[in-house]
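Minutes, project huddle
Topic: does the predicted pose make sense with iron/sulfur cluster bound?
PN asked that the exact inputs be recorded in the minutes so nobody has to dig through chat later. Recorded below.
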Amino acid sequence: MSAATRSTSRGARSRRAPDRLCAEAVELARAAAEEAAAPGTAGAWLEAVPDPHADRVVTHFFEAQEPGYRGWRWAVTVARASRAKNVTVDESVLVPGPDALLAPEWVPWSERLRPGDLGPGDLLPTDADDLRLEPGYSGADAPPPDSAVAEEQPEARGHSRAAVGAVAEELGMGRPRVLSRYGLHAAADRWEESHGPKTPMAQAAPASCMSCGFLVPLAGSLRQAFGVCSNEYSPADGHVVSLGFGCGGHSEAAVMPKAPQPPPPVIDETVADPFGD
Ligand code: SF4
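Predicted holo structure (tokens), as shared on screen:
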């Protein structure tokens, strides 16, 4: 009994026995592995596994000793026709073994992206159904002027649409999409975390941003909780800060005392100054 047959017979209880001639074709399979592998890197024979779906088809596994392929194996599949004694090679392929060193699972770029990854010139597409955004007013929802549901005359309707569009543009409402409630809450949570009252900087601050003269208020609902710091000496300069945030640059934290003004010079005109020698 050949080495291949002995080895494969160990697993014969759980799977059917390999075809004898195919299992004995170790040298044929080795030659195929050596032909496919880099010179000298097809290692020891490991096992022969019968194909579970086909008779007279067996795969021989050999250690792959290529650098960087720890635990990988050369798999050479051999087969023979019914009633034929001649065994031939089907294919040779490098496959990972049970302990193979594998590359980490591929992650799409959209899940790999992190804040700060975007560089000059990069484009970051947003999904059509991005939860952070919702449709804004663009006038696209209004029925066209000549439609059956238009209440005004086509001409008047066209004018009023243009007027509404102009006002919406003026008010900043002419964007196809605007921040959704989810997007707004997500942004508020991030800002609260980076520049909120629980940060070490805020905990050590003499007073909060709410009473600081450098705080520029925001518009909209975020105004109730956030503003922008405009103190160039503060680490939060240019950032959105929570009203509960604070830093040592607070405008009223340490108002510098004015330098004492020297009294005006007094000219004593009642005495004559002696001239020197
Ligand atoms: S200077 Fe400090 S306290 Fe004032 S707004 Fe900026 S971060 Fe807040």
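Observations noted during the meeting:
- Helices lie at 3-10, 20-24, 26-36, 109-112, 154-170, 181-194, 200-203.
- The pocket of iron/sulfur cluster is lined by residues 209, 212, 214-215, 229, 231, 234, 236, 241, 245-247, 249-250 (CB under 6 Å).
No decisions taken; revisit at the next huddle.
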